[in-house]
Design brief:
Radius of gyration: 17 Å
Low-confidence stretches: none
Order of helices and strands: HHHEHEEEEHEHEEEHEEE
CATH topology: Fumarylacetoacetate hydrolase, domain 2
Number of strands: 12
Length: about 260
């Protein structure tokens, strides 16, 4: 199976490079499940590391009950953030560099200590967090037209592409992140509002889940890594010229423009 996992990872990497989506893996391989998908993802990430990238953190997806119900799953999913995925706050992203991107506002956790599961709790996460930051994730799918089931997304590094962190660092101990409010705007118009509790009841609960899930694969979260805890609103597909801004209560704001 190792060779098959590598072949699938290679196909996803080619799709990313050529910007031509592939047929869903779940349509081609009967019984392809989440465990298989994480193995493909690990091969994909190892290929990226071999080309000079570094892992700088993790992203969590499907952190709302509505999203889990939509896909018929009972837990979130995760992928890796890499050094070539981070872009500067306010930067212009070219749509031609991606396939079908979507923008999501999130809360980012910058870890000051390692987190190793199992048994990691919300309190453990908050104690290990150096700061929280406003964040935007640019999700994208190398699966054609986003025709994904959960294993397709997992294999594709959980549909990650780019991320932006705001410049303001806020100690997590100073906040009740469940109550942290968000206004998500496109071209100055409000797209949605939310509070941190939209993510598993508490954004730190998503990070705790991640640490415990990674332990199943004998991985752990490291000090200095950033964790994007999951989307607070529905994702939005950008068009050329669009300007997105996520404004958080007490956390500050973060923005991106597309061309």
């Amino acid at each position: 199976m190792t060779e098959k996992y590598q072949q699938l990872a290679d196909r996803l990497l080619t799709a990313e490079r050529t910007r031509e989506g592939i047929t869903p893996i779940t349509e081609e391989i009967k019984g392809f499940n989440a465990e298989d998908a994480y193995r493909v993802q690990f091969h994909l990430i190892n290929n990226k590391l071999a080309s000079g990238n570094r892992i700088t953190g993790k992203k969590i997806g499907l952190t709302s009950l509505a999203a889990q119900n939509q896909f018929g799953v009972y837990e979130p999913i995760y992928g890796s953030l890499l050094s070539n995925m981070e872009v500067v706050d306010g930067v212009i992203i070219r749509l031609e560099d991606l396939l079908l991107p979507k923008v999501e506002p999130e809360i980012g956790f910058i870890l000051g200590k390692d987190l190793t599961g199992p048994g990691v709790s919300v309190c453990d996460v908050l104690r290990a967090t150096e700061a929280v930051v406003p964040a935007l994730e640019i999700a994208d799918s190398r699966i054609k037209d986003w025709r994904i089931k959960v294993p397709d997304a997992i294999a594709d590094n959980s549909s990650s592409a780019r991320f932006i962190l705001g410049g303001k660092l806020t100690p997590a101990a100073d906040l009740d992140l469940r109550l942290t409010g968000l206004v998500f705007k496109k071209n100055g118009e409000i797209l949605g509002t939310a509070a941190g509790a939209a993510v598993l009841g508490h954004p730190a609960a998503a990070v705790a889940w991640l640490a415990n899930k990674m332990a199943e694969f004998e991985f752990s979260l490291k000090a200095g890594e950033v964790v994007l805890a999951g989307a607070l609103t529905a994702s939005v597909a950008p068009q050329a010229g669009d300007y997105f801004e996520a404004c958080f209560d007490r956390l500050g704001s973060v923005s991106v423009r597309f061309a």
